[in-house]
Amino acid sequence: MSSLVPQGELRRIMPAEWPHPADFAAPPSAAQRATWAEADLAARPQRLVRLRERMAQEGVDGYFGVRWEHMRYLTGLPFDESEVTGSGDSGKFLVGAEQVWVIADSRYTIAVKHQAPESTLFNADRQLVDSWAGLLATAGVTRVAIEAATIPHLTWERLVAAAPDVELVPIEGWVEAQRQLKEPSELERVAAACAVADRALATLLPSIRPGVTEKELALDLEWRIRTGGADRLAFDVACLAGPDAALPHGAPGMRPLETGTVLLFDFGAQVEGYRSDMTRTLFVGEPRERDLEVYGLVAAAQDVVFDRLWEDMSAATGGGTVPIGRTYDALARSVIEADGRWPVYGHSLGHGIGLATHELPGLGLRSPEEPLPRRTVFSVEPGIYLEDDIGVRIEDLVILDVDAGRVEVVTRFPRDAVVVGI
């Protein structure tokens, strides 16, 4: 199946045709949330089996994890970026041959018992370096893989000194590679987060008018996301008006909306740990013809990727290989470059999403030269940015499931030219 619909001729969506909140799926029920929790509980043993198989292949008998998304994925303890800053060494974990130890101080011991019941609590009232030798001795490990990219060099040296008989092996990407192949319940949560975000933007449209500032609209949209079914934001809302829209990662300021300009929103919701990410560029008042042409070219670059994804999925279902992510980036770039009027975007075409907003797989010039996973979700977000003038980006999330014959855009808010402020 596929729910990719060719954009065709660009339509203007005026207020009478605006999407209605009821057009999008309702927030997940308590029963659905409970089902997802059960799915995670059932999946964690197999996730650990795959990690231990990699450990055996690499000749290590321990895996020390420090990234919060890996900890949630493997143990169930639901940290995220907002918690990590003040958590000290709590939330780090050690995977051994048969057990998983979760490090936690007194603030998190109850949470570990309730939310990571298959793991063993290792008390961390002291600093990690002071507990390190005891942890390794308890686990009985002698060669430990460590997520080295997120360990400060000074901490690494102190860990080596604290247990000189244990070899530390710097590694990167083991769990990331595993997480990019999504389980069905993970895809369901990403889609649910997309629906929350879609609905929030639809309810915001009547409030968008000349004179309202970027910050006011960003706060309004955040409130609608949080009260519309999200557990929290996936990331801070970007709301950028007029020339500010040319900043790919700008922050909302006090710029008021003006008639005849564009308004770019980049935002996402989080539902049971999983995230959405979408960008919509709206038109405040009657669009300028040039701005519509820029928008139409960005939409065309996105369309050619959608068309190619469907073709490649069909070929892969018949036994072919899914192309590497950078293939699609090059395809989208070629549309804008062939037109020749405006510069092509400088960022990647897309990124994977799940427990983290940016994760594997990558769809960019520097992405790994390996095929996309057969069941995954990623963004497709071409853009054109003209300094001090205009920025246009359209971002959608796509689920690719080769074995199910599925290529589906799960951000449902219209991709046509939505006109507001009239």
Describe, in plain words, how this protein is organized in 3D.
- The protein has helices at 30-58, 68-75, 81-84, 109-115, 128-139, 153-162, 174-179, 184-204, 214-227, 289-317, 325-339, and strands spanning 12-13, 62-65, 93-95, 100-104, 120-123, 143-147, 167-171, 232-233, 238-241, 261-267, 269-271, 274-275, 278-284, 350-352, 359-363, 375-380, 383-386, 390-393, 396-401, 406-409, 417-420.
- It has 422 residues and is an alpha/beta fold.
- It folds into 2 domains: 12-28 and 181-420, Alpha-Beta Complex (Creatine Amidinohydrolase); 59-179, 3-Layer(aba) Sandwich (Creatine Amidinohydrolase, Chain A, domain 1).
- The strands form 6 sheets. A 6-stranded mixed β-sheet has the order 5-4-3-2-6-7.
- It is globular.
- Mean pLDDT is 93; it is low at 1-7.
Summarize the helices and strands and which ones pair or pack.
Blueprint: E1 12-13, H1 30-58, E2 62-65, H2 68-75, H3 81-84, E3 93-95, E4 100-104, H4 109-115, E5 120-123, H5 128-139, E6 143-147, H6 153-162, E7 167-171, H7 174-179, H8 184-204, H9 214-227, E8 232-233, E9 238-241, E10 261-267, E11 269-271, E12 274-275, E13 278-284, H10 289-317, H11 325-339, E14 350-352, E15 359-363, E16 375-380, E17 383-386, E18 390-393, E19 396-401, E20 406-409, E21 417-420
Parallel strand pairs: 1-21, 2-6, 4-5, 6-7, 13-21
Antiparallel strand pairs: 2-3, 3-4, 8-11, 9-10, 10-13, 11-12, 14-15, 16-19, 17-18, 19-20
Helix pairs in contact: 5-6, 8-9, 10-11
